[in-house]
Amino acid sequence: MAVLTPRRAELRGPRASVRVGLDIGGTKIDGVALGPGDEVLATARRPSPGGVVDVVSTVVALVSDLVGDSTLPVAGVGIGIPGLVDPVAGTVRSAVNLGFGPEPVALADLVSRAVGGVPVVVENDVKATALGAHAVLGGDLTLVSLGTGLAAAIVVDGRVLRGSSGAAGEIGHLALDRDGHLCGCGQRGCLETIASGAALRRAWPHGDEGRSAVHLFAAAEAGDPAAVGVRDRWAAAVALTVRTLALTADSSTVVLAGGVAALGDPLLRSVSDALQQQAVGSPFLRGLALHDRLVLLPGDRPVAAIGAANLWRVEAAR
Ligand SMILES: [Zn+2]
Question: How far does the centroid of ligand 1 lie from the alpha carbon of residue 115, in Å?
């Protein structure tokens, strides 16, 4: 915690300042500048480069895009990024799609030095997105990210749960089937092997994960029985993920996010149907009405970047 203490102290200063949030994804980096009242002052986007040096220089360019003309001081820069993130040390490792290897990269310090000493905090992208969803939707919520992998984040009282080692919400590696597919984590039959975008693509390969998902849902909608079977099995696995999280955190809102969420309403319908089918024989599950809690991550705002900017508000509140 020693690393964060001076940064928090700086935030107790004048409130008239700008917070910058950046969401670093595999293909693009989204940025937002929030004013003192959380208003969006600017947004910007650049393609993601590969490798640490180019990621840092692109981040610096985006910060300049966002606040280069601002007369307000920048209180801090928050960064959401995939991979194994240690927010206290400010390090990232194994962000494979960005060319970050298994050795920790001191991303917070590298960016901070490159932007003139402005304090920088880093967080796992799913956790940062959940904070952004909370900023936009309000209330306690659980966010399920259906991307190449499967992960979740739980926000309670405006704080995202990390746990003792940051693994809170890593639902994808709940192993259910000893005879299932081998998972990247070394176990067999993890939820990630049946409920993620990669799992969908393995069952219905038509290009990348996004294309496979669109193709599968269109074929099922057109009545292809094989597609209906694959879609419904996959949706049932996502529904099982939602149930597991709901019985852990009981959030009033469950947000579906990640690359596969671009499917939109057909995704929402299929998971909602699966949840209702799974509750048919159980008055207990029916009473929880989990299907009524499902929403899609709002697509009209840079939610993940807003969450990254709000990493600063969370730090300030501690
Ligand atoms: Zn696993």
Answer: 37
**pLDDT of 7:** 39
Say if residue 10's pLDDT is above 60: no
Asked whether residue 60 falls in the same domain as residue 108, the answer is yes
Mean pLDDT for all residues in the chain: 91
CA 53–ligand 1 middle distance (angstroms): 30
CA 279, chain centre distance (Å): 27
How remote is the CA of residue 150 from the centroid of ligand 1, in Å? Answer: 9
The Å distance, Cα 266 to ligand 1 centre, comes to: 27
Distance 159 CA to ligand 1 centre (A): 26
DSSP state, 173? G
Give the mean pLDDT of 191-215.
Answer: 96
171 with 185, same domain: the answer is yes
What is the Å distance from ligand 1's center to 296 Cα?
Answer: 25
Residue 5's alpha-carbon distances to 12, 85, 206, 241, 315, in angstroms, are: 11, 18, 49, 36, 9
| Sheet with 141-146: strands ordered across | 159-160, 150-156, 141-146, 253-257, 294-296
Model confidence at 86: pLDDT above 70: yes
Give residue 59's domain range: 4-130+301-317
Asked whether residue 135 is assigned to any structural domain, the reply reads no
**Span from the CA of 183 to the centroid of ligand 1 (angstroms):** 5
Q: Which residue has the higher pLDDT, 78 or 316?
A: 78
| pLDDT category of residue 314 using cuts at 50, 70 and 90 | low
State the CATH number of the domain containing residue 163.
3.30.420.40
| Ligand 1 center to 84 CA (angstroms) | 14
